Amino acid sequence: MNPLLTLLRRPLFLVAGLSFFVNLLLLVPALFMMQVFDRVLSSQSNDTLLVLMLGAGVALLLMLALDYLRSRLQGVAGNLVGESLSPAITRLSMVQGAQRNGRAGAEGLRDVGTLRTLFSAQGLLAVFDAPWLVVYVAIIGLAHPSLGLAAAAAATVMIVLALLNDRLTRRGVNAVQKEASKASRYLETSLASAEVAQTLGMTDSLIARWQVRNAAVSELQRPVAARSVAMAAVTRAFRQSVQVAMLSLGAYLVIHGEATSGVMIATTILLGRALAPVEQLVGSWRVLAEGRGAYRRLGKMLDAAQAEPERMTLPAPAGQLTAQGVVYRVPGSERLILGGVSLHLEPGEALGIIGASGAGKSTLVRLLTGVWKPDAGTVRLDKADLTQWSREQLGPHIGYVPQDVELFPGSVAENIARLGKLDAEAVVRAAQRAHVHDLILALPQGYDTPIEPGSAVISPGQRQRIALARALYGDPKLVILDEPNSNLDGAGEVALASALRELRGHATVIVVTHRSTLIQHVDKLLVLDGGRAKHYGPAAEVTKAMQAAAAPKPSAEARVAEMLRTLSAGANGGATAGAVGTTGAAGGQDKTAAASGDAE
């Protein structure tokens, strides 16, 4: 917030300077009253009255011009707040939204709007006018010590009421803002899924849940509003009572000859003017408290965000990608999503990532893009850690199609060009590489067809194919596709397969898929199971290992039966061999006996 304060210092200093002269000129009506009662009425001089009127008129016209100028400067300060903070807060909101895998939160931008509203509120001018309370009380004291003491006592009570109002409402205002933010987030999320809610008949249920949250906000807001209104009413009544008491005290002094009627009227007007800013502060306290809370939250948001230092420009990457021991846990939890995943791809290689739902595939690709940061391990592109690249420098070298495709308001060509400077030749080349050129030409206005959120002109499958063209815009060296065929028909599948086949050797490609049609276009396969690498290596070897692992294995009973059959077969074979040997021996004996007989 320091740069903002530096930027605001000059306009706020000018507002403070103008407030000095405005409050100085506000003494004129009191002095005019005093001169009229003490001089004009006693002298019955028309000339004196005319001169006093002219002088007061000139002073009031000057005060009008200065007051208008300081109000305009206050508006300039509010514009500076919006222009200075909105881009930075929007960027941080986008980063946080990407890291949370959700939509960018609008709380920061709402706080910017609250802070901007503060600078256009009259309560801020009351902050500059309030210190003049001391000056007015001192002038009243110069007129008469008793009147000065009464004015000082009244001012003290008003200040105490303002501090008491702050003490009574500060926690309540903070609690209301937190609950209101939760209710707003819930409503934004519900509206983002309006189609599903309407289709499934969930609208009434969603509204009922939002009403419960809104009722909680109202329940918290009720006592805060009651206290604020009560304190504002007490402050107004007290100020009017003080003026009546001041006028009565002045009249008493006039009766006893200690003051003039002009002093009585002038001091009463001065005291009313002195207490008016304090009353205005109490009445505007909620706006001031909300602005103070917004300022603190924005300060924490900017301080907590690690300001990305200016980095040296690295050479354009060739596409070598290495992940080593990547570990990622759920933020704020110890639950492990990825545990020690490693991979290595040379430029031009293609990797397929497969696994069951919830295995960590989408988490891994987000880490490989550098949008998410691992809790442990490193991801390197051309041997440089992704943290060494600025997003502006790295983005053009990466092509990315997320699982849930989002196109931005604009034309088809502008989306393919990533909302940058439109290069027609590069847009058409990217569309041709994605094999979506003919599809785009068939749209009502071709490349100039407007894309609006929720528009039915472009189907989900067409959006996915246009997103592939956007990913290939600018010839990136690293292309990451997270289930790019989830909404594609047969023709889209063929076009995607052709694009992958043509990308091999020209860019490093990572594709997450549940379908086997894309596996034939990759060089390596990574199988994730429970956040860990179950298989990794050349696609043919991993496929063979998966088929072997998936082959049915004999049960324990079948293995025992097989062993028994083997043993039984072995035993029978041995007995048969023994029988044959015995027969052979007997035959030999017979032949010997026959030979002996012949010999005999």
CA(first)-CA(last) distance? 133 Å
Name the structural class: alpha/beta
Largest beta-sheet details: 6 strands, mixed
Q: Which spans have pLDDT < 50 for at least 5 consecutive residues?
A: 573-600
Helix fraction bin: 55-70%
Query: What's the overall geometry?
Result: elongated
Number of strands: 12
Strand content: 5-15%
CATH fold-type name of the largest domain: ABC transporter transmembrane region fold
Number of self-contained structural domains:
2
How would you write the strand order of the largest sheet? 6-9-10-3-11-12
Number of helices: 20
**Which value, in Å, is the CA radius of gyration?**
42 Å
CATH superfamily of the largest domain: ABC transporter type 1, transmembrane domain
Write the CATH architecture name of the largest domain.
Up-down Bundle
Q: Indicate the mean pLDDT.
A: 80
Write down the oligomeric state. Answer: single chain
Q: What is the highest CATH level, the class of the largest domain?
A: Mainly Alpha
Q: What do you see in this structure?
A:
The chain is an alpha/beta fold. It folds into two domains: 303 residues, ABC transporter type 1, transmembrane domain (ABC transporter transmembrane region fold, Up-down Bundle), CATH 1.20.1560.10; 230 residues, P-loop containing nucleotide triphosphate hydrolases (Rossmann fold, 3-Layer(aba) Sandwich). It contains 20 helices and twelve strands. A hairpin with a 6-residue loop joins β1 and β2. α2 packs antiparallel against α3. The longest helix is centred in the N-terminal third of the chain and has 54 residues. The C terminus is likely disordered.
